Amino acid sequence: MKKFKLIADFEKEEQFLNDMAKKGYRLKKYNSLGMYTFMNAEPQNSSYRVDYRKFSNNAQFEEYCTLFRDAGWEHVYGTRRSGSQYFLPISGKAQTDDIFSDEESKAGRYKRFSAQCFTSLTMMIVWFMIITPENGALWDVKSWYFTNGLWEMTGSLFWKAFLFETPFVILRVVPPIVFLLLAALYGYWAVKAKNFLRRYK
Predict the structure, then answer these.
(1) Residue 68 structural domain
(2) 43 within domain boundaries
(3) Among the ranges given (22-26, 122-126, 142-146, 147-151), the one the predictor scored with the smallest mean pLDDT
(4) Nearest of 181, 200, 187 to residue 8 by alpha carbon
(5) DSSP string, 13-57
(6) Distance (Å, whole) CA 162 – CA 88
(7) DSSP H or E stretch at residue 137
(8) Does residue 153 fall inside a structural domain?
(9) Global pTM?
(10) Residue 34: which region, alpha, beta or left (left: phi > 0; alpha: psi -120 to 50)?
């Protein structure tokens, strides 16, 4: 089962996953664009915990997972580059009811998430500027087409030329639009994460 949901608040995300567990769905996979993949499981009361960390190498990531496993927490999903790391307590082995020892460490995930979003926002804007047509042509639909005299053509001649070039137009125009939308999304997440930090101050 797949479910799309954009959640910038880790505590709300934990509650969402716990609610899904009560319905008999266990988290299998997640991507940063908000797509959750669940597998069928026995309905149960779960206590998902979410951290946000990226790692420069596999050794650091394995050490991180081992640290939590030794403390009684199963690493449900997450990769060294995914950022979001998902945990469930191992029955009878979890030493605490949370993966964070204090409010400062819990707030740290929002700081890391916000910093990563600002970095991604900057990258999206740079790529948008690099691949966007010159002179603001992205906003001028007619400038997307390079066929000489296209807009003066009529009838079947126009439609043949228009339909022939449209696939190439899509390849030129869609990427900058996607980068712009991603920039807006990362900007939104970065600001929201900053706001969530206030609850810990």
Answers:
(1) 2-89
(2) yes
(3) 142-146
(4) 187
(5) HHHHHHHHHHTTEEEEEE-TTSEEEEEE--------EEEEE--SS
(6) 55
(7) none
(8) yes
(9) 0.79
(10) left
